[in-house]
Amino acid sequence: MASLQTIGNHQAAEADLKKLNELRAYQEIANLNETISKQPNDARAYYLRANAYRKLQQYQNAIADFTRAIQLKPDDASFYDERGNTYFSLQKYQNAIADFTKAISFNLDNADVYNNRGVAYKNLRQYRRAIADYTKAIELKPKYAIFYVNRGEVYFKASDYQKAIADFTKAIELQPNNANAYFGRGVVYQKQGNDDAALAEYNLAIDKNENFTPAINNIGLLAYEMGNIEEAIKRWQKSIAIDNEIAEPQLALAVALYNKGEKAKGIEMAKKALKLDKNLGELDYLKKNLWSDRLLTDAQKLLENLK
Q: Which of 9, 42, 88, 187 is 20 to 30 A from 3 (CA-CA)?
């Protein structure tokens, strides 16, 4: 396991890399501004500048440039695909689907676009359509593990646990170091009440990626339900040390601290978590995230105090 100091050093390095990439993106935009001023009908230049805007999360500027590129060259599938990805980043899933569909009309054999559209359908809870798109992506790229992971996730959401396990297992066969696939199997086992099998899968996920916070968080959920509160706290603290913008372990830790008697600290942490993800304030949502009876009961006490 990485020490907290190692995690801190890693986060600092990531921050430095982010700044460097931002500087490069601004330089790309400056260069492309000059190109476009000289060649205002250069579709490729608008496309490249749009991608630079995306790197800076300036999504509206990116969409404007992708749209201009499409106006200049309306038969380029990649323009629609990338604008679709930008709409996806804005959670405008219907717009994204429309663009992915247009991209597919120009290139029926692009597995990645089927996958992208499948993810958008998943987020709209249109699971049949998502499964159909993932299946098409798999037909086109049968050795691409992420497509099986994505389809397995939707099978899980559709409560088809046997098919979910089969897809996660296939992903592991293709890519044995895929932490997401082990985690996916763990989630299915946990949902089925097979906590020992779930724990084994989560540990395998962490073996592949020691900073894989979803598995670390869920081990905390299992530990809390078994009454091992200190172990749960330790796991959630580790998740937060890795990424302090993830809301769920912060709320879980807040619940644990509140019910240990550290009420003020628990309330403060809970408020921060709910600012990051307001859905965590709903017990039904927590239950879907595999929070079990003990943690849900304790969460209710804290959440009622926040009202």
A: 187
Region 20-39 average pLDDT: 96
Per-residue H/E/C for 102-171: HHHHHCCCCHHHHHHHHHHHHHCCCHHHHHHHHHHHHHHCCCCHHHHHHHHHHHHHCCCHHHHHHHHHHH
Please answer whether residues 39 and 5 qualify as being in contact, where contact means their C-beta atoms are separated by less than 8 angstroms. Answer: no
Contact status, residue 108 vs residue 136, Cβ threshold 8 Å: no
Q: Which two tokens stand for residue 61?
A: 């500027």
Instruction: Give percent helix, percent strand, percent coil of the chain, each to the nearest 5.
Output: 80, 0, 20
User: Model pTM?
Assistant: 0.89
For residues 247-284, one letter each, b for 16 or more C-beta atoms within 10 angstroms of the residue's C-beta and e for the rest, the string is bbbbbbbbbbbbbeeeeeebbebbeebbeeeeebbeee
What is the distance between the alpha carbons of residues 37 and 87, in angstroms, rounded to a whole number?
Answer: 26
In this structure, what is the dihedral angle of CA atoms 243, 246, 248, 253, given to the nearest 10 degrees?
40
Q: What homologous superfamily does CATH list for 212-307? A: Tetratricopeptide repeat domain (1.25.40.10)
The number of angstroms, rounded, from the C-alpha of 188 to the middle of its chain's C-alpha atoms is 18
* pLDDT digit string, tens, across residues 100-123: 999 999 999 999 999 999 999 999
d(CA 174, CA 207): 17
